[in-house]
Amino acid sequence: MDLLLNVLLGVVVAATPLVFASIGELVAEKSGVLNLGVEGMMIVGAIAAFAGTVASGSYVVGILTGALAGAAMAALFGVLTLTLMSNQVACGLALTLFGLGLSALIGQAYSGVSLPQFPRLDIPVLSEIPFVGPLIFGQDALVYLSFALVAAVAWFLTRTRAGLVLRAVGENHDAAHGIGYPVIAIRYLAVMFGGACAGLGGAYLSLVQTPLWVEKMTAGRGWIALALVVFASWRPLRVLGGAYLFGGITIMQLHSQALGLKIDAQILSMLPYIATIVVLVVISRDRVKMKLNAPSCLGKVFYATS
Amino acid sequence: MLKLVPRKEPNRAMLYATPFLAVLMTLVAGFLLFTLLGKDPLHAMYLIFVKPLTDFNSVAEMLVKATPLVLIGVGLAIGFRAGVWNIGAEGQFTIGAITGGSVALAAYPEGGPLLLPAMALAGALGGMAWAAIPAFLRTRFNASEILVSLMLVYVATLLLSLLVHGPLRDPDGFNFPESRLFQEDALLPALIPDTRAHWGFVVGLFAVVAAYVYLERMLLGFQVKVLGQAPRAARFAGYSEKKIVWTCFMISGGLAGIAGLFETAGPVGQLVPSLPVGYGFTAIIVAFLGRLHPVGILFAALLMALTYIGGETAQIEMSLPSATTSVFQGMLLFFLLATDVLVNFRLARAGKPAAAAVRPAAPTPAE
Amino acid sequence: MKRAFRMFAALGAALTLALGATAAAQAADPLKVAFVYVGPIGDHGWSYQHDVGRKAVEREFGDKVKVSYVENVSEGPDAERVIAQLAQGGADLIFTTSFGFMNPTIKVASRFPKVKFEHATGFKTAKNVSIYNARFYEGRYIAGIISAKLSKTGTIGYIASFPIPEVVMGINAAYLGAKTVNPDIKIKTIWVSSWFDPGKESDAAKALADQGADVLMQHTDSPAAMKFAEERGIHAFGQASDMAAFGPKAQLTSILDDWNYYYIDRVKAVMDGTWATKDTWDGLKEKMVELAPYGPAVPEDVRTLADATKAKIISGELHPFTGPINKQDGSPWLKAGEKASDKDLLSMNFFVQGVEGSLPK
Description:
heterotrimer; A: ABC transporter involved in vitamin B12 uptake, BtuC
């Protein structure tokens, strides 16, 4: 029972950065923008959050710095792809390259700096309940925030007028423009929200999961986040499920090794990626359903003709 | 207020002028960056952009570095024009190295004039086979080829690691995870004596010409372009999307596979776990820098190669951290991509009525 | 005709003079020493520690040397170019500090016979290529003893990178050391298939702790596991550099790589003209491997035991791999009293009997 609890707690930690990064990317994609620079925004968020926390001594300031830095990176992407109408795929890749370099440059002053453990919000009484207590009521604030964000995004996209507009922009930007919605402005907001979320994901990595700053520490998690959005067929709640499934496979892989399972480490390490492909196939098989969720204008350049 | 107004047709002058404009902007931004870091900016620029060109060996190394970028970039560009998004060339590159390299290892110590062609063939087939997975899943199950091909990059890298730890490991290598050094006949001959520049670059040039002819002269090449620019028209004309997706993946996968094999049989000379160093991803940027045009890609690849080698020179001579190089490269790319807009648009005062809409020629990654 | 000849002669003389002048200038020039690192110097592990060695060289020789380095050099096709570029740029002595630089180093060395090369952790030498490595297993043997003394659960967690001899040797040495204290000790190993992925290292540390390990060892380069151990309230050993800053309570000790003296010696040898090809595999005795100061969790008696073991290894009285030792499958490897040869160690691809789990092939 203890082992199971610990495994599940490990899954939460592995999944949370992915939840942040992919829920943000989902909103950006719903508005019709494909930003492949998640990895770059995440790593800049990671160093910014770390530096912010060290400088101010406050986690709140640090987390905000991380989110702002991610949003700033996303704004840069916005200038290139929305204002200057450059290709989104190429700009996203360039953003990742730039982000990895920039974070390393800023981070030189922070290698070897250590932070205390990130506080958990042990909710009184409830967190004392065996098993369920620590799992549900004993997490840190960012974990709760990640769940709240997913719920908020789900609510926003389906239940609010603004969400409807955002989806309309992603669905058919010419029509949305025709009705009089500010397509570019809406996309800027969506992309920057995505950047801020990626920044939070990075912040979780450098402030909670490890918690320290090292170069290249995102190690490909931004790309996984991108995959999770499609994996979830652009549905917020499924993003949550996907991130936890991926985190779960990663952790199970490590545990099965420690248990002495006789499988090659490399093959086990492949599992999360292969699982993503398999689920992707299962979900995409139904063309009609897929079309229903995928934003039609994803990645397309918009130019206001009048 | 300035406003971007679409041009009636792409401006040829801008097409050639914008890269220089971008480099100029990068120089200005780089000047600020290096000054901020407390390094002599002029010297740093000189080391990055000029010094490598003055040195015979560095030029040869530029060719070495540009070879895989050209090969992969050209292949990807064909797909990108059709809106087929192969993001996983890195994986096809790795698999091509494995299959092609395995042929050499299987033949060891035998050689012969047929060995190298056999390896190249195996490399191309390996890359194609790996590319067939996303192509199949896309055409059969509608799964996003962007993500499938990307996930397969990780799988391929791990597979290479698995193989050099096991079956392909050098029997005399103290169990270190790398294959034996290839036999003489399995190594690509040098293009320029006493340098590492190899005949792969010539193959790259050939690929540039072939791609050019393909896109300009052949029916399927035409279909590729139409599908990318006007999918509905393409469907109306009865072009088979399935056929085009497969064609694009086979071309880009095959070229990436050959590039991988050239890398093992050329500069490296054995299979090592750290063979994939990101050419597959850099080639995507190269493809766009070259505006998806084969000749443009050739120049873009050479430019990228120059900044890599110049970055190393700056690191050696000025102790510039390697992170500076990626920041600098990132800026160069941003400016190049940003100034692209001037080819299809012009700056005008806001308020004037805009000309009729012309969709920018750049294709988009959606169905 | 004559005039032309005279002109040539004058030109020749001038040229000779000029050349002579540059040669003289070169003699007074500082010795150029270059380092090639596989990771960023900010990794706080392997490359970081080599860079500490580079700085030691700078401190020792001041302006008699000109030191440069290139970081983040991948072990693939780029390595050869970087090394060649350094050689061509006039470096007199080049240290290539990762196993994957072996073949590139050898290749470049044959093209630049006048330049001296030093390659870490490989096995190929040449007229102008020396190799050097440290006997980390000696440190890990002692770490095994300390961990068995301190583990309450009898389980040690080991975060491993890739199943190369170096790493396998370390796991075996740690186990053999631990077994001398507690014959029932268990070692659980997780292979993370990476030298450097702090997130994954941290997750692996967590998984090991969840399965009962209360002392962690690692053969990966980031301090993430140390940081985790500090939070979880368990113990860990640092890798390559002193990681006490990341785990002031958790760190028991750290197995340090100290390249300083070796780098200084070799630079000096080139200056004196006494440099010759050498195969160096130094350990605790030469202080290439060192133990960081013990952490507060190590009680006095354990310190005494560890120090005694260290003294015995240094004096040669004790070799961590002394028979009888069987391989994992029970087949015999070393007879009673027999010591493992360096060749056996350097190509080790099996676990010794008692280690759990399988070795990835």
